[in-house]
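Case study B.
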Amino acid sequence: MNDATAPIAGAEAIAFTVNGRPITVAAAPAKRLAAALRDDLGLTGTKVGCDAGDCGACTVLIDGAQFCSCLVPLGRIAGSEVTTVEGLEFGPLQAAFHRHGAAQCGICAPGLLIAATDLLRHTPAPTEQEVADALGGVLCRCTGYRKIVDAVLDVGGDDGGKVPSSGAAVGARTVKVDGIAKLTGEARFGADAVPTGALWLKAVRAPYPARFTVGELGPLRAAHPGLVRVLAAADLPCNAFGIYPELRDQPVLADGLARYRGEAVLALVGDRDSLALVDAGSVPVSYEPIQAVHGLDAAMAKDAPRVQADKPGNLLVEGGVVSGDADRAWADCAALAEGVFETSAVEHAYIEPEAGWARRTGDRIEIHVSTQTPYMDRDETAHVLGLAPDQVRIVPTTCGGGFGGKLDLLVQPLIARAAWLEGRPVAWVLDRPESMAASTKRHAARITARIGADDEGRLRAASVDAVFDTGAYASWGPTVAGRVPIHGCGPYRLANVRARGRAYFTNTAPAGAFRGFGVPQTAIAHEALIDDLAASLNIDRLEIRSRNALRPGDRTATGQVLGDSVGLAACLEALLPDWHAALAEAEAFNAADPRSRRGVGIGCMWYGIGNTAPSNPSTMRLALSRDGTLTLYNGAVDIGQGSSTVLAQVVADTLGVPVDRVRMVVGDTDRTDDAGKTSASRQTFISGRAAQLAGEDLTQRILRLVNAGADASLDLDGPSLTVTDGGARHRIDLTALPEDADGAVLAGAGRFDPPTTPLDADGQGTPYATYAFAAQMAVVDVDLALGMTRPVYIHAAHDVGRAINPTLTEGQIHGGIAQGLGLALMEEYLPGRTENLHDYLIPTFCDMPGITVTLIEQAEPLGPFGAKGVGEPALIPTAPAILGAIRHATGVRVTRVPALPHRLRAAIRDMERANG
Amino acid sequence: MVGYARPTKLSEALAALDRATATVIAGGTDVYPAHVGRAVPGDLLDISAVAELRGIADRGDHWRVGALATWTDLSRAPLPALFDGLKCAASAIGGIQIQNAGTLCGNLCNASPAADGIPAMMSLDGRVELSSVGGIETLPVGQFVTGNRRTARRPNQLMTAILIPKPAAPRAYGAFTKLGARASLVISIVMVAAVIEVSLAGVVVAARVAVGACSPLACRLPALEAALVGEPLTSALGGIAQDSHLGPLAPIDDARASAAYRRDAALTVIRRTLESLAANP
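Model:
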């Protein structure tokens, strides 16, 4: 950095160069460079994920070296040269990222591109290790890092991203339709496009579960004239929201009782600078700690205090599945395995904290927000504000990661209420500790399970009792308790099943939706027990799974007869050669290295696609305008997983036009139809099918126009549409057709609601129209003396029905593996102790093993071109496979995750002692 | 001083500190993270432009690491094998962004029990140089750090350098091992820094072993150090370390690990660190 700088005192004009352009910023010199770039210079391509140097999202080049701009005082860069993502030319590096699908949500892409630019300047042809070292300061929660490494190693490589020809989009590795904006800094995330002049909001949050009273606010307002309003519980027309209309148990602002640390009690509204000066300690709220309920044992205790007064026994909900007679079947089993397994609360740790802004437009409110569920946001916000749903418009911003955590309201109702009252835009961007304290978590769980088999290893009976810590409010607790019993015994043929799921309230942050809705926790239990049975019956662990794998035509525990798309056996078969090779290699390794032990493990899973039992339709509209623009009105928000691209591919092949002809309007509740939530791995299957139906509808309308047969092909060339029907060619002049209100001359619509039935009291019925299946094997090395586990290799075989876009499918699987690895080995959310990204650990570049993905395509007739879903299935088998590998390496059956070094070491010591 | 000052001369920096209390900022990797979501309160003295504080220099009987020497500077500096442990620590702290910004001296001044630089400097027998308008004072690192985030630095003093004496023995080697629950970007559960000085005959003539994150402040293990003296430099050095040498450790339970694990792992890590020294020529 430049040395020849005079001392600077107070706020001053600071001159430096940004992206080759000399500029001067008048701001406080102690201001963080990241904030100055974003707020003063409008360079919002630089992202703020933690404001603490932990995530690297804000990485910029200063005089050619990479720095976290959140740690650099603006005053220091006087005379320096700063390069942000906006200053990078779109070149071979960006092209490689685009080609490899290396940006999913894209929030970390700017930091990664800067770090990679730094690397490539010094090391034009880096090794994989050099890439990991150079980019390793940036955290990514979506990709599992593999596609990023692949991209950097392939800079200047062959551009395979050409547009496939008409009719060949499905199955092609097409580039993401929204990919380029994520690589240039142009994509606008929740915090990026706040209107100038907006008011800001800041929440006051309870430091612990407490009764509280708010004192006289006059002095606070006098001290901060920029504070224009303080919202309290009474300021909300209906201070209650929830996921289920009958379970709106969560206040937007706590009303005298904060049930968890981090619950919002007041919302301060004012100009941004004024709010920044409000010290939380100066807000007159006095807290009286309550007798808090922490953990499942406390919640289930006989005389436990009630977290919610009207919920006796702290029980939120109970669900179950009973088939056959497990109690009688035990007696027939040659081997029984049982165990109790515990998992921890897990933080979503999307790199983009919750953010959004709202403005009032007459008697309507418009909310720009990072979300997974615009239509539910609309309806719930309307409920809180006492408005009709059509008075609320949700405009989703680019979403910087969700994983289930952006399925609950957080910023929406407060910014909406404040903007409604003030008549000015109101913005709110959470900081990292606040996001972690306030947002939902994966349910901590305790699973008690038992499985029995005959002497050939065929499963005869299983029982599962899963209890979940659902936190202070219901959120998605009922969804978890309902989904778990259905999946609780694994993807196996079982005639006798008794499965139960219960969720209990505690005084901690609400547990909500997190990739898998409780199934990942349960899979840890059933897969450990299958390994137990394999051991006691002396059957190979993969073989016993093959013998029991659900196959087409099998009946599930809910009595559903499966169709043809049941690819678990094929997944296991795909792993088989690698499995035997890895077992042999582990044996050789262990003979040579006394310090660490290598182990191989395997995990299987199944996962119902879409909501459990109730209707969950998607509606898609497709319109052709006079100039030949084809627009998909798509209410399914793409949270980085690539649904927009997949839907474009489906539409393109349905119409027989090139995929780059499909334009899109995404998520805006004023301009699209309800396509449900981006959750439950449902968008490819359900919205994809709706898009296909919309495409077919539009095609029919076009063909009818010229009386062409169903086999006719379309050729769209600007305002001219040619229909070729056998030897006949019909030309349609789109400019001659009448326009509808939306400017469309031809339009099609499609709606798909997967056929399901409600479950009866014994959990019998058809809860899902289709299921995804997968098997993953893991190879790990365990350092015995330190209890440290290093995953070496994972082979993931997934039955996805049809991979509409193999690159994106692989990306989902890589990312799921990373999160499953975190669940198994390092992630544990502890309120007040891990509310940042250095105490809460998520996998880094250097934690990821080599990954092989095998895609099995057992076509699902209901899905678009045979496709099912993959988002959640990707992570479910990973932890079981890793834990199985640890056990193979050490002999220790891990019963509590994460298997932190100290826990694993203690278990190894206990085992060594027991073995003398 | 008002708000923020960035002097270019050491005398100006010392004068500013003498006039008023200020938070000293070098790399910013500890100051800003302590104030997420708000401005850093009080006055900031940014020393990054003080040229006198730069550089890593050989001063004849010692090396001088200036207050602005970053982890990256240390990794790249042409230093003898004595510094291998410090270099290992430097390349394991955060990502490159953090290594480019954070300084060794800042790491010591922040005085976290998990600071990787503190055991590394204890093993190097480093002394900190504290300057004020009143003069210069030097202190051994072990006396400078007085507790969890507490140091002997007075508000008007600036740490201007760390001084590392040249060993008397003909050969000297350093090693460092860091243990964390993930592969990188991780706060240490245990870290061990070791330096041995070796005679031409290959016998250990002096040893310094320091352990971090196992006590409120990192500490050396004098009994182990004494036991190492007189031993030949082979991988058998690791076996010298015994549980009885760990008296000074007082680990605690926290979210990262249990106290029992820390104690157990410390011995393993000490042994491995000593073993690794035998790889030196």
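Chain B touches chain A through 53 residues (CB under 8 Å). The remaining cases will be described in the next quarterly update.
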